[in-house]
Predict the 3D structure of the following.
Amino acid sequence: MGATNMERYIKFAIYSNIPSLLLIIVPAISGLLTGGNWQALMAFYNFVLYIIPVTIILIYLIRSLVKGLNPHRAYMVLYFALSTICMVLLAIAWSVFTPIVVLVSCAISYAVVRVYKRRQARRP
């Protein structure tokens, strides 16, 4: 992979991960501060497994792009590995954690609605 192809791949990794970071940070902070056990757990996982590492990697990649990519093979391998890690973590964040949060939220919502309907039916 040449420097221009690597530059394109790094830009792709950055551009695809930044919107996700912006979308996930707000609910993760909200879940940590106001959520119940499941929400707080999912928020913690989002921070530890996606938000923090991807932010650190993206800062390094953006800094490398601004300074100019180092053409040595070891640096090209490093850039490729970091960009690929970002993409893998992005896929994990959206394919694993989102469905878990959705399923847990649906189950909790269903249970709360059932309890609410039972209480409303008992009232005269």
